[in-house]
Amino acid sequence: MATNNKKVMGYLPNDTPPFAQIVLLGFQHVLTMFPATVLVAALCGFHVGTVLTVSGLGTIVALLLAKWRIGKFIPLFYGSSFSYIAAYLAIAQQMTGSIPEFGVPLPNEVISTIQAGIVVTGLLNILVGLLIRAIGKETIDMILPPIVTGSVAAIIGFGLAAAALGMASANWAVAILTLVVTILFSVYLQGRGFIGMLPVLLGAVTGYIASALLAPGSVNFAPVAAANWFAMPTFTFPTFSGAMVGTAIFSVSIMAIATIPESTAHLYQISLYVDRFATDTGREKYELDKNIGFNLILDGVDDTLKGMLGATAGTNYGENNSLMAISRNYSGPALIGAGVIAVLLGFVGKLAGLVQTVPLAVSGGLAIYLFGAIGMQGIALMQEHKVSMFDPRNLAVGATIMVVGIGGNIGYEGGFLPIPVLQGLFPSGLPAIATAAVLGIFVNAIFLIFKPPMIEAESLEGAAVAADD
Fold it and tell me: For the chain, which end, N or C, has fewer CB atoms within 10 Å of the first or last residue's CB respectively?
């Protein structure tokens, strides 16, 4: 039901809007999640219809589990996560000889191999969620401090720099135009309502039109014409055999290091919004932020479902959180409506055909911005937690992760380090980004076990002043 305060229109998580509003609010959620979720699928060679359907299904399952377990909806939408792109592309390149063509699905056996890693990602999230409920978030934060999670997020983005430029090289003029207009939309439309939440979609449409005008023949509608209006999503199932399965499990699942703090931050964010709205309307606070461990269990259930059915690994979306803050619609039933709409969109065959018509240079222009933004968000995470780079421990952990992750992903074919360790499990070498993450955790663990001398805050400040001088 709507709020009792008629001066403030909106819905709290357990409120159920009228059916017509559920449909409209649901479409708004889908429009918000659509660009990023579909972009990951198209970039990485997953079936677009499958990713849309399972994203909607995962959202519905997570919402219903929360309502059943804690009596409250946790209003989050689960779309595709960008944190796993580097791992997907590395595995695809190793198994097929090249990165996927934008919008064209990979062979099913490649997707099935990647799915093994996504399933393990889900199980890892569930395990971390259970550990947090048992031993507390503080202990997990010691093992995965911001210097580790932030550095890993950074190398995921910056390690993809060469891939972004490779796509952009298909037509530099179109790619740069797409990049610039997307940046302009993201900056100058910020705070201007719902349209300000769609800079990537607007940039893609602008680049699409520009490519059609500047590069005749770059837009080919044959895939749309060939596709049926109704098409069953292509569900694939994980395989746990084959030469690359060990690599897939290691390189994909370890990326949960980046998504765990992201998911937790989103929960804090939406909890703050919900409780503030509850206070404004004279209703009881929901205090959703008390469910950090359970929230990660829901993330794990979502990823396990996606891994079982052939969708990209997910995360709850900050974009939809922002939409809820703007609209003051935190309704769980409205998000269930969005999930149903996403499921149905997955059955529209011509939608996948339309995605295939996007020129490679357009996706390259978007990728320069998006991959760079992922990297910068890792740095922002460290800034948010006031990570001191004058502390030699932080420098050691961050330096190790950055050099091994970025250098290895860009400098070696497919992003695999030619280190002859466990060659039966890693026949192509060790995946650079995943190896960097593990090395960072290992170095940090040394400092936890063998405590270094404490460095007083005043000494660090003095070092900073000396460096400035």
Answer: C
